[in-house]
Task: structure prediction
Amino acid sequence: MTDFEYRKTLVVGVIIGASLTLLAFYMVKPSPEIPSPTPKTKFAVVDRYEDRCNVVQWTDQHSATYKYFLDCSK
Result:
């Protein structure tokens, strides 16, 4: 192997090695943190129960179902 072929092989090897190293760093880098969406809920006082508790209506904004519960925390 002549000196020219040796240097040519060395340069090609360095280029391939650097490319593979950059590709590995690109593949391993952490992805940006994406905040998870918080579910939006809706509470509403719809009535009173025995003048001491609130009747609270709860719904998730993405469904058409309602749940009711008593809030007697006064």
In short: Residues 3-28 form the longest helix (26 residues). The helical segments are 3-28. The radius of gyration is 33 Å. The first strand starts at residue 41 and ends at 49.
